[in-house]
Amino acid sequence: MQDHVDWTTPIAVRPVPAILDEAVARFAGRPAIDFLGRHTTYAELGRLVDRAARGFQQLGVRKGVKVGLCLPNTPCFVICYYAILKAGGTVVNYNPLYVERELRHQLEDSGTTIMVTLDIKQIYPKVAAMLDSSCLERIVLCRMADFLPSVQGLLFSVLRRSQVAHVPDDLRHVPFPRLLANDGRLQPVPIDPTADLAVLQYTGGTTGRPKAAMLTHGNITANTDQLYRWMPDGRAGEERMLCVLPLFHVFAMTVAMNVGLCYGAELILLPRFELKQVLKCIAKKRPTLFPGVPTIYTAINGAAEQEACDLSSIRYCISGGAPLPLEVRSRFEQLAGCKVVEGYGLSEASPVVTCNPFGRVKDGSVGLPLPGTAVEIRSPLDPAQLLGRGEKGEICVRGPQVMSGYWQRPEETAQVFAAGALRTGDIGYLDEDGYLYLVDRIKDVIISGGYNIYPRVIEEALYQHPAVAEAVVIGVADPYRGQVPKAFVRLRPAMASTVEELHGFLSGYVSRIELPKYIEFRDELPKTLIGKLSKKELVAEELARSGATLHKAS
Ligand code: AMP
Fold it and tell me: Is the predicted pLDDT of residue 452 greater than 80, yes or no?
C-alpha cells in the first residue's frame, strides 16, 4: 500500500460544530446514528443539535459555562456534545460509573453547573445527590426509552421499570424533550478555535491526581483532521463506525465520533462492551471501521476460537491506549480480513500523537507522528536536554492537538511542558525512520537495586508464552532491592502453566534482574472502563497485604 497520507496541507483548526455542520450539509439523507436499531439521519441530527443548542442557551449556556455529560453511548451524548459547543459552552466528560466522591471532585473542580444524564438507577441518584450540595444547578434528563425504536422503547419502560429512577418534576430538572421544545434558532456564537475551550477531559496524567486537560476547539478539530487523513480510501457517506468504546473517553470522542462525522459515517452506538452483543452487532450491522483497545480485540479473538464469528465487514481498526500484542493484532487481522494499526496518545493531546501507517506497520512500534506533529525524546532527569535517535528518554510532543494546559493548575501545567513541548510521562525512543517505540511509563518504572526495570519488557516476554492471555507487571517492595517485579497472569482457557515453568520460559527473554520475583495467577485482571489492563488496583492490593504469603519463584 502506498503512502496515502497528506502530510503537507495545513491542519484544519476550526470550531468543533463545523464538523457537524459540514456533515449535515454533505450527507443530509444518510444515516448518522444507529442506536439499538433506531436510526437518525444527518439532517435529523442537525435539527436535534440546533434545538438542543437553543435549549441550552435558554438555560444560560454561553462561553465559560461548563456542561457535564454523564452518559453511556446514546444518541443523547452525540446530540448534546455538539449542542453544548454550538451554544458556546464547554463539555465536561464524566464517566457514568464514577462513585459519588469522584463525581463530586470533578464537578467542583470544573465548576459544572448543568449535567446531562440518564434516568436509570445506576446513574441518576449519584448525580441528583450533587444538586443540593455542590455547584450543580440543573440536570438535563434523558430517558433511555426516548432513544429506542418505539416497540423496544415501550418494552423498555414496561419491563425495565425497576431500573428506572424516580425523578422529581421541578425546575431543576429539564426533561430532554423540553430542552428540544423550541424552533432551533440559536444565537450564533463566534468561536476562536485556538483560544476557546471545547472540552475539559479529566485524566490522572503522570502524577495520578485527577485534573482536566483543557482542549480547545482547535486541538480537537486538528486531531480529527490528522486522523481523517490517516485512513486510506475512506468512502464518504458509506462507512459505518462501531462505537463501543465510551464516547466520554477522549479516544472514542475523537476517533469514533468526530472522525466518523467527517466521513459521513453511520455511528453504531453500543452503550457498553458486552462480548456477545458486540459480535452480534458486527455480524448484523456490518461496521467497516472499528477503533478499539487491545482487550476488546483479545476478547473477540478468544470468542472466535469457540464459535464462528462474521467479522468480514471490518476494513480498518485503530488500536490505542495500551500495548497491542503482535499476536493479537495478526490474529484479528486474519479473522476479519482487515488492517489493524496501533497508535499512541494521551488525553493531553486530544489524544492521538502517533500511529502506524496502514500498510507500513513496524512491529513493536506505535508508529509515526501524525501530520503537523513533532515527537522529541528528552532526558527524564534534565528535560532541557534533547536525546538522539535510538536513545531512550521521555517522549515529548508538539502539535496543534496539544492542550493549552491543565484547568486551574498553573504549577502542574508549568511542569508538564519542557521548552514548549508536552511531557508525556512515557519513556520511548525513535528509530532511524522516525517510528516511535514505547518502553514504559515513568511512574511505572521499577527501580530494583539501582537498576531501571521497565515492566513492559517483562509483559511482552510473558505474552510470547502460548498459555498467557493477559499479563501485568508491577513493582513490589523488597527489603534488599527496594523494589522487585511481580507478574500477574491470566492463562488462556484450558491452558496450564506453573510459576516455575513461566519463570524458566522468561529467563530466555529477559535479564536476570528483570525476572519477576513473584508470579501470581488470576482468573481476572483489573481493567479500566475502556478495557485497558489497570495496574493501580494491583499496586493498592500489594500495599494492603504486603505481609501475605506470595508464590515466590526460586
Ligand atoms: P489517557 O490519557 O488516560 O488516555 O492515558 C494515556 C496513556 O496511555 C499514555 O500516556 C500511555 O502511557 C498509555 N498509552 C496510550 N497508547 C498506548 C499504546 N499504544 N501502548 C502503550 N501505552 C499506551
Answer: no
Closest C-alpha to ligand 1, atom 5: 346
Reported in sequence order, the residue ranges of 293-435 that DSSP labels E, i.e. its strands, are 316-319, 339-345, 352-355, 368-369, 374-378, 393-398, 417-418, 421-430
347 Cβ closer than 6 Å to some ligand 1 atom: yes
Pocket flag, ligand 1, residue 358 (CB < 6 Å):
no
Ligand 1 atom showing the smallest separation from residue 347 Cα: 2
Q: Which residue lies with its CA nearest to atom 18 of ligand 1?
A: 322
490-531: pLDDT as tens digits: 999 999 999 999 999 999 888 888 899 999 999 999 988 777
Q: Which of 361, 438, 440 to mutate to test the pocket of ligand 1 (most atoms within 8 A of CB)?
A: 438
Q: Which atom of ligand 1 is nearest to the CA of 344?
A: 16
Segment 303-343, tens digit of pLDDT = 998 888 999 999 999 999 888 989 899 999 999 999 999 99
Question: What predicted TM-score, i.e. pTM, was given to this entire model?
Answer: 0.87
Choosing from 245, 296, 346, 527 the residue with most ligand 1 atoms within 8 A of its CB, the one to mutate for a pocket test is 346
CA atoms within 13 A on the CB side of 78: 32
Rounded to 5°, the CA angle 410-415-421 comes to 110
Question: Is residue 469 scored above 80 in pLDDT?
Answer: yes
- Say which CATH class 318-442 falls into: mainly beta
DSSP structural state of residue 300: H
Is 322's C-beta closer than 6 angstroms to any atom of ligand 1?
yes
8 Å CB contact between 322 and 294: yes
Is the pLDDT reported for residue 375 higher than 90?
Answer: yes
Distance 132 CA to ligand 1 centre (A): 37
* Residue 162 predicted with pLDDT over 90: no
Q: Which atom of ligand 1 is nearest to the CA of 441?
A: 12
Alpha helices (H) along 325-454? 326-336, 410-416
Is 69 within 8 Å of 96 (Cβ atoms)?
A: no
Residue pointed to by grid coordinates 515466590: 552
Tens digit of each residue's pLDDT (9 = 90 or more) over 124-153? 999 999 998 999 999 999 998 888 777 676
Instruction: Give the residue extent of every domain in the chain.
Output: 17-263, 318-442, 445-544
What is the DSSP code (8-state) at residue 433? T
Average pLDDT, the chain: 92
Percentage of the chain lying above the pLDDT 90 cut: 75
The answer to whether the CB of 320 is under 6 A from ligand 1 is yes
pLDDT at 236 over 70: yes
In short, whether 118's Cβ falls inside 6 Å of ligand 1 is no
CATH 3.60.40.10, applies to 445-544:
no
Quickly name the fold that domain 17-263 has: Rossmann fold (3.40.50)
Looking at residue 433, its amino acid is D
Residue 1 pLDDT class (50, 70, 90 cuts): very low
